[in-house]
What does this fold into?
Amino acid sequence: MHGGTFGIATPRVPLTPALSPGGEGDMPLVKSLPAHPDRKKGAAMTADILFQVLVSGLLIGLIYALVAVGLTLIFGVMDIVNFAHGEFLMLGMYASFWAFALFAIDPIVALPLTALLLFAVGVIVYQTVIRRILKAPMLSQIFATFGLMILLRGLAQFFWKPDHRLIPHSLVSGNVAFGPVQFGLPQFVAALGAVGVTGALWMFLHRTRLGTALEATAIDREAATLMGIDGQKMFALAWGIGAACAGLAGGLIATFFPIFPEVGSNFILIAFVVVVLGGFGSVTGAFLAGIIVGLIEVLGGFLVGPEYKTAIVLSLLLIVLLVRPRGLLGKA
Amino acid sequence: MRFAPAITEPTRLPKGSLPSRRQTIKRLLAAAALLTTTALTGIGLDIAPAHAEDEIRIGVIYPLTGAAASTGVELKAAAELAAAIVNKEIPAPPGLVAGIGLPNLKGAKIKLIFGDHQGNPQVGATEAERLITSEKVVALTGAYFSNVTATASQVAERYGVPFLNGESSSASLTQRKFKWFFRTTPHDDLFVGNFFTFLGDMEKKTGDTLRSVALFNENTLWGNETTKLQVKLSEEQKFTIAEKILYPAKTTQMTSEVQRIKAAAPAVIMQSSYLGDAILSMKTYKELGFLPKMLLANDAGFNDSEFLKTMGKDGEFVISREVWALDQAERNPLIKQVNELMQKRSGVNFNGNSARAFTGIAVLADALDRAGSTKPDAIREALQKTDIPASGLIMPWKGVKFDASGQNELGTGIIVQVQGGQYVTVWPFDVATKPVVYPMPAWDGR
It folds into this structure.
C-alpha cells in the first residue's frame, strides 16, 4: 500500500460542533478572539472565561484545603511539621487504586476504608516514629519526618513499581456543563467531598468532647494534661486524623489524577503555602487559604501565564511571611 | 493487602542484641563490598584475550547494568544479531545490507567487545579508553544515552578511532566538528521539524488551514530547547503561534494552561510532556471539553506504554513521533524477516532502539568491507563514502549517507497515531500503514 492511497480518514464519529475548536455552540465568545502571535502576556478575558477559570480554581483549591487541613492539624496540636504528609496522600491514592484493581471497589465507595486505613497509618507512624522524637530538637524532628517521606516513597516504588496508574472508570466520570462553564464530574465530586470532610472535621473539633480535648491540647498542652486529658492519646489522634484527611484527599483525586510514588511532591509544596497563609494550626484558616491559593494559582496562571503560576503562589507565601507571619487566622 | 509491609511495626530487638545487630550490619557491609568487587572483576574477566588474525574487533558500549539495563540488553541482542548476520552465521534475508558479509576482508569475522557504561558518562569514557587501548578495537559504537555518547566519542576522537552512533538523538552531538564521529539516527531537531512538514502535507490533503499552532511544552531544558526550535521553524515556515506555554513540570492542575490554549483556539497543539503531565493534560482537555484538530506529541510521556494503557480510549488519536514502529513490518518484508530472526534468537520484537542498534552495526560492517582494511583512516574514509539505499535497511529512512558533520542526511522520523490502542505509522505517507484520523473525534463521540 503506497502513496496516494493514504490520505485522510474521516473520523469514526462526526464532530459535535460544540466541542470542535472554534466551533459554534457553547463557546461563541472564544471564537471571536483573535489568535494573534504578538499576544504574549495576558489572555483575553470574557465573563464566561473568567467564570470558568474561577470555578476551576475553586475546585482545585478545595482539594488543596483538604490536604492542608491535616497538615495544619498535626502542627497545631504538637508543633511538628510533617514532611511526609504528601506521602499520606499518595498512600490514600494507592489504597483507592488497589481497592479498585483487586476488589473492583470504586474510589468513592472505598473512601471510608481509605480513611480508616490512613487513620491507622497515622497512628502507627506516631507510635513508632513521632512519639520518640517529641522532645528532640526541632532539627531532628524535621529529619525524622523527612526520612519518613523518603521511606514511604521508596516502599511505594518497591512494592508498586514507579509506574503511573489511573483508575480507568470510576462511578464519577464525564463532564457537567452549566451554561458556558464546564467542569469534570470527578473534580466536582472531589471538591464536594473536600468541603464535606473539612466541615465534618470542624464539627468534630468544635462540637464533640474528644474534639474539644484535641483543641485544648493544641492551645496548651500542660494545662490540658492537668485537666485530665491524655496528651499521648491526643497526639496519636491528631496524626490519625491528619493522615486520614490526606488519605481522603488522595482517594478523592484518585478518580482523575495519575497515581505514582512521587505524587505527594506535587501537592506538598502547595499544602505548605496553604498552611502558612491560613495560619499554622488553624483548620478554618487552611480551608479559606486553600480556596484562595487555588483561585490565585489558576486565575494568575491564566492571566499572567501558566509558566508563572508556581512563582505567583510562592510569592504569595513570601508576602504572607513578611506582612502577616501568623497567617490569616493564626494565633499570634 | 499489599499494604502490610509498608506499615508493619519493626520488630523490637531486646537491648542485649544491639551489639550483635551492629555486627550484622558490619557483616552485611563486608559482604556487599565483596560482591561489588567480584562483580567488577567479573566484568574484567568477561573479555577473552585472544586476538585471532581474521577477527575484526568492534567496541560496543551500552548500559548493560543500572537503571537502563533492560534497554541495554535489548541493544546488545540487536548488535549481536547484526554481527551474526555479517559473519554469515545466520542466513540473511536478500537485500539486507549486512548480509553481504566482509568479502573484501577475505571473509574475516567481526567480534563485538562489549563495554558497560551503567548510564554514567564518566564510566562511558573509561570504557571507551579500555576498549581502544587494551582491547585494540578498530571502531566503537554505542552508547544509547546522548550524554554518554558525548564523553565516549570524545575519547575516540582523541585516539583517532571511528565512533559510529546509532541511537543518540541530541542534536548537539554532530555539531561538535568531530572528525571521527558518525551518526546514523536522525536527531531531535529533525523530529521537531518533521511535524511542520507533516502539517504542510496535511494541509494539501485536507484543504484545511493548519497554520495556527499552540506550543505547549514543559519548562525543563528539553521543553525550552524544543520551544526555541519550534518558534524558529514557525517563523521560517509561516506558521502562527496562537499560544506559547512553558508550563511547570509535575504540576497539580493544568486548568490555567488548557484554558489559555482553549481561548487561543489553535488548529494544532504541539506538546512536550513527561508521563504524569501527559496524562493530567489529557484529563484536563477532556474536563474542559477542548480538542484541537490535531494534537502533536513530542514523544516522551505520550509514547510510554503506560500512557496507552492508562488512558484507554481517551488516549486515542494522539499523534506522536517515532523512529520506528513494528507495523512497518506489514509494509516492508525485509523488516518482517529480520524481526523474525530477532524473535527466534532473543524472543523479543525489535523496537526503535534495537532496530537502530542493529542498523549501526550493519552500517559499520558495510564501511569495513569497503575499506578492505582495519586501519582507522581507511574505515573513516569508507564511512564518509557510505551510500546505502533505503532498500537495504530495516529503518523507514531514505538511506544512509553522512554529511560533513558525520550526520546521516537521509534519516527520517515517522509520525504515528494512536489507533485502536496502539501507535500506527501515518506519515510519511509512502511508509504509512494506516490513514490519519483527522480531525480528532470529539470526546463524547468516541
The radius of gyration of chain B is 25 Å. Residues 55-186+331-400 of chain B form a domain with the Rossmann fold fold (CATH 3.40.50.2300). The mean pLDDT of chain B is 86. Chain B touches chain A through 74 residues (CB under 8 Å).
